[in-house]
């Protein structure tokens, strides 16, 4: 079995919570591919290209982590990359139902790809891309919530 994991999400933008899951995943798997998917029900602040650039910048010290995009299904992407696992983070009970739904659907689509969940570190339990954007929009300090490049990118977006 391959030791490749796919870490899918919107990453609009990547936060320290995402990064925590990616870092810990990178210690377990030989390779972690962070994949940006367009979530149809969310209207994004950053383009897919911008999100990928920010992920690359935030993970540049992790040689076995790469960033990519996909427009299809996560399970198809995982199969194409010969990945054996989909890695997701769990923050609170509120994440659970949504994650259960996606996981059962993914298992139905392809039972060979296993979904693994990692509990977030307590300090990131209430951290989400949406909260960060809301705070940054009103010029709040988000320096302890996101990587430096994201902090700068948010400032630029909201200056416009
Ligand atoms: P999606 O739109 O698919 O939910 P997100 O970018 O919001 O994508 O999240 C991608 C993954 O990262 C999900 O598994 C989500 O639960 C996880 N995640 C998001 N924020 C955190 C956090 N603060 N701590 C741990 N995991 C997180």
From TrEMBL:
Residues bound to substrate = 10, 42, 74, 88
Keywords (alphabetical) are: ATP-binding, Coenzyme A biosynthesis, Cytoplasm, Magnesium, Nucleotide-binding, Nucleotidyltransferase, Transferase
Enzyme Commission numbers on file? 2.7.7.3
UniProt cofactor(s): Mg(2+)
Where do the annotations place ATP binding?
Answer: 10-11, 18, 89-91, 99, 124-130
Its pathway is: Cofactor biosynthesis; coenzyme A biosynthesis; CoA from (R)-pantothenate: step 4/5
Per the record, its GO cellular-component terms are:
cytoplasm
Looking up HAMAP family in the UniProt record yields: PPAT_bact
Functionally, this protein is described as follows: Reversibly transfers an adenylyl group from ATP to 4'-phosphopantetheine, yielding dephospho-CoA (dPCoA) and pyrophosphate.
Subunit:
Homohexamer.
**Can you name this protein?**
Phosphopantetheine adenylyltransferase
Q: Which organism is it from?
A: Allobacillus salarius
Q: Which gene does this sequence derive from?
A: coaD
